UniProtKB/TrEMBL annotation:
Residues 5-112 form the Na+-translocating membrane potential-generating system MpsC domain. It comes from Salinibacillus kushneri. InterPro entries: MpsC. This is Uncharacterized protein YbcI. Pfam families: MpsC.
């Protein structure tokens, strides 16, 4: 049985939340996933801790938090690629991520080899 686009998006959101809790020790407040052409875009809200928001008040602190958080996520990239492959059957070509120190949101973009949206 083929899942709907919304079902895939929901499954990816759940799996990434689970990964965050297992790998990073805590999850985001909300996760929203969108499949667009050959991209899976994941928007995670409530990433930063209260202490990290405080540290982010200085430019140096913000750069340190962004770098540390980025390294943490990058160190789990194989797990994330496996999540996408398991749920969608598609291999990840490249992965991009950034975090906003102002809003505490992270965006993850998985570029796939194929147009997943067209195949749904």
């Amino acid at each position: 049985m083929k899942l709907s686009k919304g079902s895939y998006e929901s499954e990816i959101s759940k799996a990434i939340t689970h990964w965050e809790k297992e790998f990073l020790g805590r999850g985001s407040i909300s996760v929203k996933t969108d499949i667009l052409r050959n991209m899976i875009i994941v928007n995670l809200k409530g990433i930063l801790t209260p202490a990290e928001y405080t540290v982010c008040k200085t430019k140096e602190g913000m750069l340190t938090i962004k770098k540390t958080r980025s390294e943490l996520v990058e160190s789990g990239i194989e797990d994330l690629k496996d999540i996408i492959l398991t749920i969608t059957g598609e291999k990840v070509k490249s992965f991009h991520t950034d975090i906003s120190s102002r809003t505490g949101e992270r965006v993850m973009v998985f570029l796939l080899y194929n147009d997943l949206e067209k195949n749904l």
